[in-house]
Amino acid sequence: MNKYDLIARLNHRFSALEIGLQQLHQQLEELPLLAARVFALPDIEKGTEHQPINQIAVSATVGTPARDLALQHYQRLFIHHQSQNVSSKAALRLPGVLCFAVTDSQLIACQKSIQHINQLKTELEHIITVESGLPSEQRFEFVHTHLHGLITLNTYRTLTPLIDPSSVRFGWANKHIIKNVTRDEILAQLDKSLHAGRAVPPWTREQWAQMISQEINEVRQLPENARLKIKRPVKVQPIARIWYQAQQKQVQHPCPMPLIAFCQLSSAAELPKLGELTDYDASQIKHRYKPDAKPLQLLVPRLHLHLEIEK
Prior knowledge:
InterPro entries: DNA_replication_term_site-bd, Tus_dom1, Tus_sf. It comes from Yersinia hibernica. This is DNA replication terminus site-binding protein. Keywords: Cytoplasm, DNA replication, DNA-binding. A hairpin with a 4-residue loop joins strand 9 and strand 10. The longest helix is centred in the middle third of the chain and has 28 residues, at 104-131. By secondary structure, the protein is of the alpha+beta class. The strands form 4 sheets. It has a 5-stranded mixed sheet with strand order 3-1-4-11-5, covered by helices on one side. The chain has a 4-stranded mixed sheet with strand order 10-9-6-12, with no helix packed on it. The chain has helices at 3-29, 63-74, 104-131, 136-146, 152-156, 183-195, 205-220, and strands at residues 33-40, 55-56, 59-62, 96-102, 161-163, 167-173, 176-181, 228-233, 237-244, 249-254, 259-264, 273-274, 280-281, 296-300, 305-308. Helices cover 36% and strands 24% of the residues.
C-alpha cells in the first residue's frame, strides 16, 4: 500500500472513530443511570513525565456529574482538550465505572457501538505502529503531520463493557512486565535494528550501529541456553476487580478510563456494589506474598534485558 492510501485510511478511520464516539455518547446519555463513580487523578505537568511516582491523590465524583465527566473523557483525543501545562507525553487517566439499566435491544445496540469503536481503535494503532513501517521515534512526526495534536495512547485505549457484574472494586497495580526470551530471539532483534540503517537520536547513524554491534557481541558470548528475561518497570496504574456472583468468577481489568456496566432489566440483576479508589502511597504497599526472585544481571539497559544468574 502506498503512502497516500495509508494516510487516506488513517484519516478515514479516525473520522469514523469520532463519529462512533459521538453516537455512543448519545446512546449512553439516553439510558437510565443507576450509578456512576469516577476518580480524577492529578495532571502530570510537562517535564515531569519520567519522575518516580510515590503518591497519587484521588478526587471522587459520583452520579450524573461522574457520567458527564466519563462521556467527555472517552472523546478526549487531542492535546487541545487539556491544559497547556499538562504533558502530552503522559496518558490521561480517569478510572471509574458507569452503571446503566438496559433492555435487551439497548444492550445489543450499545455492544455493537462499543465493538465498532474498539475495532477502529485497533485498526488505527495497527496503521500507525505497523503499516507505517516507522520506528517508534519517527511515529510522532507522522501522526502529528496528519492528525495534529493527537494523543495516541488515548486513541488506542479500548472501551471495556461489563454485563451484570456483582461488584466493581478498585485498586493500584505497580509491577514489572517480565518476558522470558532466548538468546537467538534477542540476536534476531538486534540484527534487524542493525540492518535497518537508521539513526536514533541523540546518536548518529554510525554511533547507533556501533552500539548495536557491541550489544550483539555481548549477547553472542552467552551460552545458547542462557536464561534471559525482559524485565521492564511499569508505572503504577489503576485497576478494577470485577466479581460475577453467578459464575463465581473474578476478572481484573486495567482501568485508565471508566468501565461501562450494563445491568439487564430482563435478568433482574441487582445494582453492583461499587468500591472506592483510595489515594496511592508507595510507602504503604504491603505484599501478601513475595517469592524470592533469582538474581538478575542487567545486560542491555535500553532493552531491559537481564541474565538470570544461577545460585
